[in-house]
Design brief:
The chain is mostly helical.
Length: 276
């Protein structure tokens, strides 16, 4: 079967629409994750989602129900517990370890097929249905809509929390809102790349973009573009060459970050030579 025929199959088309929706949300929210230095929180929320999905599977519910409940709960707990920009990561670490313990418990209690838990860990992009596409798209559009509304105050509190607070902005409520958006984005991304790789799709494109540009809108646009290209190229390579699609997406996003850092270092050396 040719590549064109493969791309025209229904399951690949479902996957294409799903990865597009996920990449748009992941690129945008990832920009603020890196800007706010909350990569560890993003990592923790993804693993908390594993416990929620495992618990839902054990109870005979849809994994996304557990993902939403646990990820949102973790986001709110981290925000209320004080894991803000200038505070320690203790709350994040405790939340992460507690969730992993629950995940192990739920997996040990589950007696069904291992495929259900395997898809939670590594994603199931080529198994999504139109219903999954609709849900992922709705959640992603919701995240993008809220981000567009709170973009300026969120950017202000992310760059200079003290000045924002002096201007009357509530940094705590803005942190809670951001972590809730991050939790929802994590839920939709887990459907594509799984718990173990969701961190790379959210953080790597944004980190690459911020290495290439310091201007907020340009960097955010670059992060979204890199996430989209990583998702599309990863899907094509996974279908055409073989191997897990989530691996290809993660590999391409990571390569983009490494390339951006090399370009940044070369640019810095060039500037030092000019000054000298």
């Amino acid at each position: 079967m040719s590549l064109g025929q493969l791309l025209s199959t229904s399951f690949v088309q479902h996957a294409f629409y799903a990865v597009t929706a996920v990449a748009l949300a992941a690129g945008a929210i990832g920009y603020f994750v890196v800007l706010r230095r909350q990569a560890f929180a993003a990592h923790a929320i993804g693993h908390v989602g594993f416990a929620g999905a495992a618990g839902a599977v054990w109870l005979g519910l849809s994994p996304i129900v557990g993902l939403l409940v646990f990820c949102l709960g973790a986001g709110l707990l981290i925000g209320l517990g004080g894991a803000s920009l200038d505070e320690s990561d203790t709350v994040v670490g405790v939340t992460l370890t507690a969730a992993l313990g629950l995940g192990v418990l739920f997996i040990s209690l589950y007696s069904g097929y291992a495929n259900a838990t395997y898809s939670i860990l590594f994603g199931q992009i080529l198994g999504v249905t139109w219903g999954d596409v609709g849900l992922v798209t709705a959640l992603s559009l919701g995240v993008l809509l809220v981000l567009s509304v709170v973009y300026r105050p969120l950017l202000f509190t992310s760059v200079d929390a003290q000045s924002a607070s002096a201007r009357g902005l509530s940094t705590r409520w803005m942190s809670l809102l951001f972590l809730s958006l991050l939790a929802i984005t994590t839920v939709v991304a887990i459907q594509i790349v799984g718990v173990l790789l969701v961190f790379s799709l959210i953080v790597a494109p944004a980190a690459a973009a911020q290495a290439l540009s310091s201007r907020p809108l340009a960097s955010l646009s670059l992060a979204t573009a890199i996430a989209l290209l990583s998702a599309w190229a990863g899907l094509v390579l996974g279908v055409w060459i073989g191997g897990p699609v989530s691996f290809w997406i993660t590999a391409i996003a990571s390569f983009a970050y490494l390339s951006a850092r090399v370009a940044q270092a070369a640019r810095s050396r060039s500037r030092r030579r000019v000054i000298a």
